[in-house]
Amino acid sequence: MNHLPENMENALTGSQSSHASLRDIHSINPTQLMARIESYEGREKKGISDVRRTFCLFVTFDLLFVTLLWIIELNVNGGIENTLEKEVVQYDYYSSYFDIFLLAVFRFKVLILAYAVCRLRHWWAIALTTAVTSAFLLAKVILSKLFSQGAFGYVLPIISFILAWIETWFLDFKVLPQEAEEENRLLIVQDASEREALIPGGLSDGQFYSPPESEAGKKLEYYLYTTSYPLE
């Protein structure tokens, strides 16, 4: 039995693949595409993503929690006014907790400015605050006399250290990757929408395939018959 000529076989294969690709494009629902685009554009108009807002809230919690612990420490060690004057006015690096509070203020200002106001998408700001916090706390724990002042000599440095590294982990593993993924999804949806707009509306499979009883189908059947059973 003879086979179809190679050129005709390649033409049929290419035609089928092109028809399949067109069906794939038309299988995308334009309404769903527009809904997704509007959803992503709505997030852009808000100016800040939900995960970044959560990060900023945690940074604020860092400052408020350290401030609360410091106020409790002031009240425990002889009253707020007397202890505040001793730790702030008569500041002593080896016995004061005031610098730990200032360290929390430093983290808050840098991170809010970088990731809420400027909306940076890089880790350099969080790396700076975490490095400064870690170096300062390690030096203070080694050189100061905080451990001889009761439980707060342990609590404040440890809490500050842990909060700084939680902020680093949250930004590096949650905020930046999730925002990058959402941006990629937006680009994919927009690209699909642009391709959908290039396809003329109202096309159907009937415009690509000849009906079984059409003239083109009869000619193809006759060609297959004559090549398979050549006339003598």
TrEMBL record:
Keywords: Membrane, Transmembrane, Transmembrane helix. It is found in: Late endosome membrane. Signal peptide: none annotated. It is a multi-pass membrane protein. Residues 48-218 form the MENTAL domain. InterPro entries: MENTAL, STARD3. It holds the Pfam family MENTAL. GO terms for cellular component: endoplasmic reticulum membrane; endoplasmic reticulum-endosome membrane contact site; late endosome membrane; lysosomal membrane. Residues 1-20 are annotated as: Disordered. Residues 10-20 have a biased composition (Polar residues). One of its GO terms (molecular function) is cholesterol binding. GO terms for biological process: cholesterol transport; vesicle tethering to endoplasmic reticulum. The chain crosses the membrane at residues 55-76, 96-116, 123-143, 149-166. Belongs to the STARD3 family. This is STARD3 N-terminal like. It comes from Callithrix jacchus. The lineage of its organism: Eukaryota, Metazoa, Chordata, Craniata, Vertebrata.
